[in-house]
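User: Just a sanity check before I run the rest of the batch. Below are the structure tokens for the first item. I only need the designed sequence back.
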């Protein structure tokens, strides 16, 4: 940004509204997913732009996407990481900067996960990352103050959420658009590159 919180034009991506579905029914019933259009100036999808930047800086070609993982069957030995642009009080000025924190997976519920780590307002919509595998197993939705001392996120395998993500992956106009030409990539959601984004309805 230019310091005003507004992304530069080359980093702006319009939502493909026709592909968006979501739910706003509190903890465990809060999710949203859809596709993004290519940038009007560069013609690139956000994940492609991010991947190119990562490669130029010596990073991995895996940058910009997460594999959708399996929710663990118990909490023992399992940790969660949340990375995102939560709000931050900088000498009285509210700003957003990328921050990350990991902590223990506290409980596994039918439609949501609870985990003990630090988040702030604006983290909603961040992937719930299983620390041990690096896979996305949910979407962060609620802070700990209102959920009994732990943060919460909707499970990636919640039936309606999972069904819509599957539809997003399978309803592209070509295999290249959906799976980079590799049919075995069906369980890998390039949240940006494949134009798919997740969010929390709660933030609205």
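Assistant: Here's the designed sequence for the first item:
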């Amino acid at each position: 940004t230019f310091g005003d919180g507004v992304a530069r034009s080359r980093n702006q991506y319009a939502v493909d509204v026709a592909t968006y579905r979501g739910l706003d029914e509190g903890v465990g019933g809060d999710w949203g997913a859809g596709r993004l259009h290519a940038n009007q100036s560069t013609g690139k999808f956000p994940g492609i732009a991010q991947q190119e930047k990562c490669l130029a800086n010596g990073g991995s070609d895996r940058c910009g996407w997460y594999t959708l993982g399996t929710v663990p069957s118990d909490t023992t030995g399992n940790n969660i990481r949340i990375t995102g642009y939560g709000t931050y009080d900088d000498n009285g000025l509210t700003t957003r900067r990328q921050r990350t924190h990991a902590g223990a997976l506290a409980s596994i519920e039918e439609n949501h996960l609870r985990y003990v780590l630090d988040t702030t307002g604006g983290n909603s919509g961040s992937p719930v990352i299983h620390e041990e595998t690096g896979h996305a197993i949910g979407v962060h939705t609620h802070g700990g103050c209102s959920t009994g001392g732990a943060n919460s996120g909707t499970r990636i395998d919640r039936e309606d959420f999972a069904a819509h993500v599957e539809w997003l992956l399978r309803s592209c106009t070509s295999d290249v658009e959906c799976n980079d030409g590799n049919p075995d990539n069906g369980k890998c959601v390039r949240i940006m590159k494949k134009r798919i984004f997740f969010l929390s309805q709660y933030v609205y």
